[in-house]
Amino acid sequence: MVEGRADYRDAGLVFPPGFTFGSATASYQIEGAATEDGRGPSIWDTFSKTPGKVWNGDTGDVACDHYHRWESDLDLMKDLGLEAYRFSIAWPRIMPTGTGEVNQAGLDFYARLIDGLLARGIRPVATLYHWDLPQALEDAGGWPARATVDAFARYAEVVGEAFGDRAHTWTTLNEPWCSAYLGYGQGGHAPGRHEPAAALAAVHHLNLGHGRALQALRATSTGTPEYSVTLNFHVLRGVGDGAGEAMRRIDALANRAFTGPMLRGEYPEDLLQDTAGVTDWAFVQDGDLADIHQPIDVLGVNYYSTATVRLWDGVSPKQMNDGHKGVAGGTAWPGSDQAVEFVEQPGPYTAMGWNIAPEGLEELLVSLSEQFPEQALMVTENGAAFDDEVAPDGSVPDPERLDYLRRHFTAAHRAMARGVDLRGYFVWSLLDNFEWGYGYAKRFGIVRVDFDTLERTVKDSGRWYRELVRTRAIPE
Ligand code: IFM
Questions:
Q1: How confident is the model at residue 314 (pLDDT cuts 50, 70, 90)?
Q2: Domains in the chain: ranges and CATH
Q3: More confidently predicted of 214 and 323
Q4: Where would I find the beta strands (DSSP E) of 180-317?
Q5: pLDDT given for residue 3 in this prediction
Q6: Per-residue pLDDT, 14
Q7: Of all atoms in ligand 1, which is nearest to the CA of residue 436?
Q8: What are phi and psi of 24, to 5 degrees?
C-alpha cells in the first residue's frame, strides 16, 4: 500500500486558483411553501403524503422554509465564503401543471435568488430537474412517456429565457439514475412505481430530456453559461466467482446507460442485450441519440460511497424478489436465471449506512478522466449524514462529518495530482433538509436546521469548510 493511501487525511494540500468551492441543495428538500404563489403539486408532494412512503410521514411542506428565508440563507452562504451555490429550480413553481401557463411568481422567486447570489459574488449553478416532476405530468405517464420530454424542453426554454443572461452554470438533471430506477423500478422514490420496462423507458426519456433541454437552453441563453449534467456513479467492487460479470452488468445499467448516450452518442451494446428480456428499447427513435449527444462543459459527479456486488446463478426474478438465498436487494433479469445482489460492505459507515471510502472518489475521478479525456469534471455532491447533537453552548460539533469531508477533499486533490481536470467541489449539503424517504431523520448539512424553530447554526464542519475556502488549503 502506498504510504498515506489508507486514511486520506493529508492536511495542507492546496487547491489551485480557479478551483470552485461551493455547496448544494435542492428545491423540494429545502424550500417549503409547497402551495404558495401558484406552485403546483409535484410527485414528491403526492408520494410524501402517501402513508408509509416517508419516515415519520414527513413532507416538504415546510422543509427549511428557504422560500421565505432565502435572503438570510444567502447571507449565510456569503459568511461561509461560498464561491458558488448549486440549487435546483422547482418545475412546478414555474409551470404548475408541467406544460402551458407560466407562473410569474415562480420565476420571480428564482430571479430574487439569482440576483441575490450575484450581489454577494456567489455564482449561481442551477439544476433544472432534481426530482420534483409536476404531478400532472406523472398523471399523463411520467418519465416513461415521451411527452414528458417535450414538456421538459419547453420548461428549459422558459428558464433559459428568464435566467440565461445570469446563470453561471446550467445543469439539466440531477442523478437520473434515481429518477428512473428508484422512481419507476424499485419504487422507493416518487412516484413509487415497480415497472422494470417503464424504468428503462424513463432512462431513455431522461437522457433525451437532457439533450433537448441543452438545445433549448443554448437557444435561449443570452449570457455565457456553462452547460452540465450531474450523474451519481456507481463505484463497484465485486465478490464471488462472477464478480467481474456482476460489476459489468451494474456498470452498464447504472453508469454507462447515461454516459453512453450523453457522452458517446450510443447505448452500450451489452446493456441492450442484458435487458432484452425486459424491453426491446423500441422507445429509442431515429435522431434521439444525436439529440442526446450534446456537448457539455462540465460533467457533474455525485459520490458518497462504493457498492459491492455478487452474481447469483440459477436465481429467477421471482426468487430474487422472495429473498432467495438471503438476496435482499439487487437486480434480476427477466428471461435470465442470473441475478446481481448488492452485498454489505465493510465499515465505517455514515448514518445512512453507507460505507466511507474516499479512495472510491479518487478512483472514480481518475477513471472518468481516462474514459472521457476531454471532459472537465466537477464534484457536484459529496457529504455525509451523521446524528449530530447540539452542545450545551449551542455549538454543533460534528467531527465525523468534518473527517469525512477532509478525507474526500484529499481524495479529490490526489485525483487532480494524477492529472484529472477537476474544476470544483460542492458539499452536500448546505442545510440539513428533507432527505427523501428518510424525511428529516438524516442530517447532511454543514449548517444545522432546528426543524422546530427553523433556526440555522453553522456546525464545526461548516467552520472547517469556511477555513478551507478562505485559505484554499485543507485545514488540520
Ligand atoms: O439528498 C440527496 C440528494 O438529493 C441527491 N444526492 C444524494 C443526496 C443524499 O442522499
A1: confident
A2: 20-231+358-471 (3.20.20.80)
A3: 214
A4: 226-232, 235-239, 298-302, 306-313
A5: 45
A6: 98
A7: 1
A8: -130, 155
